[in-house]
Amino acid sequence: MPKRAIDLNCDLGESFGCYKLGHDEAVIPLISSANVACGFHAGDPHVMRRTVALANAAGVRIGAHPGLPDLLGFGRRRMAVTTEEVEDYYRYQIGALRAFVEATGQRLQHVKMHGALYEMALSDPSFTRAMCAATGDLIWLTPVGPTATIARECGLKVVEDFYADRAYNSSRSLVSRKIPGAVLHDLLQIRRQVVQALETGTVTTLEGEQVTLEFSSICVHGDTPEALDIVRLIREICAERNIAIQPLSELFA
Amino acid sequence: MPKRAIDLNCDLGESFGCYKLGHDEAVIPLISSANVACGFHAGDPHVMRRTVALANAAGVRIGAHPGLPDLLGFGRRRMAVTTEEVEDYYRYQIGALRAFVEATGQRLQHVKMHGALYEMALSDPSFTRAMCAATGDLIWLTPVGPTATIARECGLKVVEDFYADRAYNSSRSLVSRKIPGAVLHDLLQIRRQVVQALETGTVTTLEGEQVTLEFSSICVHGDTPEALDIVRLIREICAERNIAIQPLSELFA
Amino acid sequence: MPKRAIDLNCDLGESFGCYKLGHDEAVIPLISSANVACGFHAGDPHVMRRTVALANAAGVRIGAHPGLPDLLGFGRRRMAVTTEEVEDYYRYQIGALRAFVEATGQRLQHVKMHGALYEMALSDPSFTRAMCAATGDLIWLTPVGPTATIARECGLKVVEDFYADRAYNSSRSLVSRKIPGAVLHDLLQIRRQVVQALETGTVTTLEGEQVTLEFSSICVHGDTPEALDIVRLIREICAERNIAIQPLSELFA
Amino acid sequence: MPKRAIDLNCDLGESFGCYKLGHDEAVIPLISSANVACGFHAGDPHVMRRTVALANAAGVRIGAHPGLPDLLGFGRRRMAVTTEEVEDYYRYQIGALRAFVEATGQRLQHVKMHGALYEMALSDPSFTRAMCAATGDLIWLTPVGPTATIARECGLKVVEDFYADRAYNSSRSLVSRKIPGAVLHDLLQIRRQVVQALETGTVTTLEGEQVTLEFSSICVHGDTPEALDIVRLIREICAERNIAIQPLSELFA
After folding, report:
1. Does the beta carbon of C140 lie under 8 angstroms from any beta carbon of chain A?
2. Among B103, D75, C108, which Cα is nearest to A79's?
3. B18 contacts D21? CB cut-off 8 A
4. H or E element at residue D108
5. Would you call A247 an interface residue with chain B, using a CB distance cutoff of 8 Å?
């Protein structure tokens, strides 16, 4: 069950050149940790600078959100890359974002896998280990489940997050987006899932089973106007229960 | 006139995926500072990791060699980018390379402009200032001339280098590659230019004028088999004069 | 002065991967010729297929809208490419789009320069000639002005278009987007400019001069919700004057 | 068993920008059909133009060699793309190359899968069907095996080729490059495999089995200096047996 404070994290900085994606300006003031795209699957140097500035202005802490080198597929298509390539892609992207963060006098807080990298990590632990190697002493923010276990074995500082609007498998992994019902759209259903998680530390899986979850962060989405409603809903649920919203790094300070 | 020690710098890590460019394995043991491509005009994460490892193994210090986002044109085609974009591209690439260097326990030493960025810096000081802003407290390694002056005004630690095989304008800038005679190929002519620079601190320009030069590094090329002859020639010239080859950072230690 | 039928052309198919740009579904039924991005500055193979299908369904004829290889800059940043490179980029992109058009049993109708290529064509006629060489027997659709003259000298079938919402220089070229007042936003002002062009064959330039224009097409934009209002306004103006909207190729049939 | 004439095909045009790959100038005069990269996994518009010119000058017929959009991985890394995406990528690349070929007054002759697309076609027939749909009435040149069968079912004009220097599985597919022994390097072994194939229409598989093969073309490589020896060896073997070297399209004329 979570502490009396919790982190809200969201994927941000996913625009590219003249292409605008997400509602960063609206979402950032509502969250506590931002997962910022690093230019491979989304984002570009200018977007990264601007996203860092927005997060700083709102007191939101910043993490890297590295992806596969596939802008056309938004990093959502698995690629037959080697573990060494994954480690190198991770290191490159984390370093690039870190430069923007440190140029503002801040510190990078965490790293979180994007898209197909998460699926690849689930299906092959050596991918998780490769990403952990490049993450170093940053916080490894990851969905509840096997990728957290491996990262702990690698000696990383691990924080698990819970997805307000995603269905869960009994293995505690997220149901793949390709499967119907993977994404919850109904606000009532989302409220039920979040309240259950916060109050009982459990989630009811797609198969109907009730499994326990440990988490210190909730992941919210920012890429649809409806997503804003979900973020506001979660803040409301937390406020009702007197749960503060705080960045990961403060939860463990 | 140079000190009794001098740095030899060379552009390296310019391969990309299965495309091999340069003779890094042969050149690295002969130089003291490596300008490593950062993935925009050349290089990729895997090449960067390998180049850093090669340099470390040879005791060669590493600098970033950022370029324009134009792999197809190898960063040699001027682009109508803004100064803000240039600063962001610089920061991104320096950060990415820094991650590979620091992962090996080393420190990034310097930054050097690649290709069209140098021409853009020559024609508009605001580009130089933008790149300086992203360079921070790293050494600004640059051809003798106006880009050094501006960087000093920006408060940077500046080192000028001398091109063994390039012709000079009377303004002390490099003759553009588009002009015949810009690149020296004859080893005797190159020897003459290097000896003159080392002994008298001057160069004879394309127009026939003799101008003074201050430099602490010599830039050599590594992308042709003939280039290796030039590097060896310069080492020979230095050895004859009892001039040590040392990385930039040691010259100023 | 235009014929009693006129073409309406619009830049379309500018989405890329998961990045959506423009309001293609809404705009296509309102125009007669579509300038479709070809994957260099915008667009991708999947977007091209879909855009061709949308145009076919609406009876809209298709042209290629080639740009510079600069997705990050949306093809709006001039690059120091050679005329030979421009010709090759043009040929490549036209061929790629042609394949999608011909797969549906249709014929490609025209070609129109995108972004910085237009500025480059204005400043150096050899760029226009290079693009003409790759355009072959397709219609060369181009803003009123010098690029039309050169294309005619090259023996191309030329159609000039008029920009409803852009200011003009006295040389009949479009005022650069960098200059304030280059883009008209006020619907009344746009109506005035279009009516004047249709009725008197003239435009009042930014400098206040009245210059004559020959055109057979009007270019409209589709990338903002407001743009739809402009398209509807132009259709209204044409309807009031009993001017039919027809694809370029039918105007000359 | 092959006819008294046979085609020799080779992958060409794989350079990119300033990156040179292969020995196109040396190889082209020795073959009869060229598989030309189309800008996704290798090649660029300028390289395509130059490769087409080289092939034309040598009387070599041209085919498209489309790959995955992964320059960094040279199209050799499987990607989780959809069949629709594969069809679109194929159509785009074939169209782009066709433009260069037709600009010289020639006709495109064939299409051949590159890299991971071949592996994907082997593991899922729907990928083969998607590529066939975009190939239309061009010749489908493919390694002996299941991808030929499916293409025939799709109604395509199919030609199978034999790999002089690759090991075969008993299913008649090529042994994956990841498996030791997949690529033959010994000239005597290659001679034995080619002579056996030409004289008995069989190949001895990696497992030691002897399987029959029907083929009308031999695939040779051009990306290593040693590859030239293999091409010359095959020409020698053919000359000894009075087998002419002719492009695919002439074999069926």
Report:
1. no
2. D75
3. yes
4. none
5. no
Average pLDDT over residues A220-234: 86
Residue D78 and residue A80 in contact, taking contact as beta carbons nearer than 8 Å: yes
Distances (CA, A) of C52 to A102, C89, C135: 46, 21, 19
In what helix (H) or strand (E) does residue A198 lie, and over which residues does it extend?
helix A187-200
> How many helices and strands (H and E) does chain C possess?
9, 10
Q: Does D77 contact A72 at a Cβ distance shorter than 8 Å?
A: no
Quote the DSSP letter at residue D19: B
Helix, strand, coil content of chain A in percent (nearest 5):
40, 20, 40
pLDDT in tens, A73-86: 999 999 999 999 99
Q: Which helix H or strand E contains B227, and what residues bound it?
A: helix B225-240
Name, in order, each residue with C-beta under 8 angstroms of A74's C-beta and a sequence gap of 6 or more: A41, A42, A67, A115, C17, C18
Compare all CA atoms of chain D with the CA of B18 and give the residue at the minimum distance: D74
* Alpha-carbon gap: C99 to the closest alpha carbon of chain B (Å): 24
Chain B's closest residue to D16, CA to CA, is B72
Stretches in chain C below the pLDDT threshold 50: 1-2
Contact C88 D49 (CB under 8 A): yes
The answer to whether the Cβ–Cβ distance between C21 and A21 falls below 8 Å is no
Per-residue pLDDT tens for B13-30?
A: 999 999 999 999 999 999
**Residue B1 predicted with pLDDT over 60:** no
Contacts of A45 in chain B (CB under 8 A): 85, 88-89, 91-92
The amino acid at residue C158 is V
| D89 contacts D38 by C-beta, under 8 angstroms | no
* CA D167, D171, D177, D179 torsion-angle sign: negative
| Residues in CB range of D174: below 8 A, 6 or more apart | D118, D143, D145, D163, D166, D167, D168, D182
Per the CB < 8 A criterion, the answer to whether D72 and B44 are in contact is yes
Cβ of D85 under 8 Å from any chain C Cβ? yes
The residue written with tokens 């939101």 in the block is A60
Least confident of A60-64, D42-46, D166-170: D166-170
pTM of the full predicted structure?
A: 0.96
Predicted confidence band of residue B2 (pLDDT cuts 50, 70, 90): very low
Q: How do strand D210-212 and strand D202-204 relate by DSSP bridges? A: antiparallel
CB-nearest partner of C17 from A18, A44, A74:
A74
